[in-house]
Automatic annotation (TrEMBL), chain A:
Domain Aminomethyltransferase C-terminal: 292-367
EC nos: 2.1.2.10
Keyword flag Protein biosynthesis: no
Record-linked Pfam families: GCV_T, GCV_T_C
Class of enzymatic activity (EC top level): transferase
Any coiled-coil regions, as ranges: none
Gene: gcvT
Residues in GCVT N-terminal domain copies: 10-261
The name this protein goes by in its record: aminomethyltransferase
A GO MF term: aminomethyltransferase activity
Keyword set includes Metal-binding: no
UniProt keyword list: Aminotransferase, Transferase
Family: Belongs to the GcvT family.
Lineage, top ranks: Bacteria, Pseudomonadati, Pseudomonadota, Alphaproteobacteria, Rhodobacterales
């Protein structure tokens, strides 16, 4: 029997907005609203979209000895990124790796003064929390009394500033607490769309009220998981379980940049995370295949699993599509695949679709120009 | 009179041919259609044979031939404007098929029966 799906604090609001609800990573989530995926996508790029991302795992990591560096050092044993040295009020992207150097999950972590706040993928949250709880010297607390909202798009800052004037002062990847009518909100200026925007952690008992306060502004529309996927794909952002898995290393996923200098072979705190030998060797020596962008010449989308060939006929696959769909802002199909690094941008390769080889162009990521407020 | 298939196609007899499209319900379930691949005119097909590929932002689907016959015409305008399927599904026809006899239409649902199917 299927496990009962969990509902976020915005479930009733989604239903009232006419959302189509689907199971996703154990949660019942809105995949789209009556506006439709295409219009929701374009609305986010044009104005501001409100996303319920409460299914994502929020986790607090406190040092037992009161010294934040103790927690940072502990986290560096499982995260292939520099945790130590991250200034207070700043957030960074990181990867959990396995012993083979494959990616177990990706996450955001923020220095909140006396503790770190981690945001991990819904499907991986249980696993991540379990191994974080195996770390010594830290107290790991899953946040169960808060939801998470993303407000994304060129009007996001303007709208949010009407409720929280201080939000406008934040820069990309800043993390801070702000008071809204006595409610403690945890904000970061970041997102998963390629647009400027915020992710806002809100206590569950105020989640719907806060979401409605944002939706009351004309610029804001609710956006489902469908458009969230096409927005992140256009922004060249990988999706866990698709563009990266336990069998894909950071370099192969095109995420080598996430491993800061301090953790690399010539760094002050080199290695020390699972699979470091493999990961660092690949960073130094390069890899044969990595995540690249693809643009089919025709209108047919190429989706996950479609095989890519170097030639129009014959030969063996040189990779397969890890994410692919239609890019509403690009105005055509787009995809990502792990294919040889030595193919130049602009090179033509072939996707085998329904038995036919279709020409596709190797394209630099992202497909759109991001507009972060750095 | 329109007839309907369990695959959410509408069928309209015109002369000795059947015009085939998909219902509003189907187009809503598919979401925004972004790509349509139509069959070649003159192709002889079996009933249930996949003849059209239809891709929405979300997923790829097939449309099958409702009956055996010959594809006599396709709506090539749809290939350039796939969104027409969402905007006006009852006029956005995909293809015309000529069966051996129009009697085959009798086995399909009428509007009332189809309405019950989709609830």
């Amino acid at each position: 029997m299927a496990e009962e799906l969990r509902r976020t604090g915005l479930y009733d609001l989604h239903v009232a907005q006419g959302a189509r609800m689907v199971p996703f990573a154990g949660w019942e989530m809105p995949v789209q609203y009556p506006m439709g995926v295409m219009a929701e996508h374009l609305h986010t790029r044009d104005k501001a979209g409100l996303f319920d991302v409460s299914h994502m795992g929020q986790v607090l990591v406190h040092p037992l000895d009161g010294d934040l560096d103790s927690a940072g050092a502990a986290l560096e044993t499982v995260i292939a990124a520099a945790v130590l040295g991250l200034p207070e009020g700043r957030q960074r992207y990181g990867l959990f790796t396995n012993d083979r150097g494959g990616i177990l999950d990706d996450l955001m972590f923020a220095n909140r003064g006396d503790h770190y706040l981690l945001v991990v993928n819904a499907a991986c949250a249980e696993q991540d929390i379990a191994f974080l709880q195996g770390l010594s010297g830290v107290e790991v607390t899953p946040v169960t009394d808060r939801g998470l909202i993303a407000l994304q798009g060129p009007k996001a800052a303007e709208v949010l500033a009407r409720l929280l004037p201080a939000a406008a002062e934040m820069r990309f990847m800043d993390s801070r607490s702000l008071d809204w009518n006595g409610v403690d909100l945890w904000l970061s200026r970041s997102g998963y769309t390629g647009e400027d925007g915020f992710e806002i952690s809100v206590p569950n008992d105020c989640l719907a009220t806060f979401a409605q306060a944002l939706l009351d502004h004309d610029e804001v529309a609710p956006i489902g998981l469908g458009a969230r996927d096409s927005l992140r794909l256009e922004a060249g952002m990988p999706l866990y379980g698709h563009d990266m898995t336990g069998d894909v290393t950071p370099s192969a996923a095109g995420l080598g940049w996430a491993i800061s200098k301090a953790r690399r072979a010539d760094g002050a705190r080199k290695g020390g995370f699972p699979g470091a030998a493999t990961v660092l060797a690949e960073l130094a020596d390069g890899v044969s295949h990595t995540r690249r962008g693809l643009r089919p010449e025709g209108r047919a989308p190429i989706r996950e699993g479609v095989q890519i060939f170097a030639e129009a006929e014959g030969g063996v696959p040189i990779g397969d599509v890890s994410s692919g769909s239609f890019g509403p802002s690009v105005g055509g199909p787009i995809a990502m695949a792990r294919i040889p690094v030595d193919l130049a941008d602009g090179a033509t390769v072939f996707a085998e679709l329904r038995g036919k080889r279709m020409p596709v162009t190797v394209t630099a990521l992202p497909f759109i120009t991001p507009s972060y407020k750095r | 009179m329109l007839k309907y298939t369990v695959d959410h196609e509408w069928l309209r007899a015109e002369g000795d041919e059947i015009v085939v499209g998909i219902t509003k319900h189907a187009s809503e379930q598919l979401g925004d259609v972004v790509f349509i691949e139509l069959p070649e005119e003159g192709r002889e097909v079996e009933a249930e044979e996949e003849v059209v590929v239809i891709e929405s932002v979300k997923a790829a689907s097939d449309i099958t031939a409702p009956v055996a016959g010959v594809i006599t015409a396709v709506n090539s305008d749809l290939a350039d404007n796939p969104g027409n399927v969402n905007d006006d599904p009852m006029t956005a026809w995909f293809f015309r098929i000529k069966p051996a006899s129009l009697d085959v239409l009798d086995s399909f649902m009428d509007e009332a029966a189809y309405g019950e199917l989709i609830g």
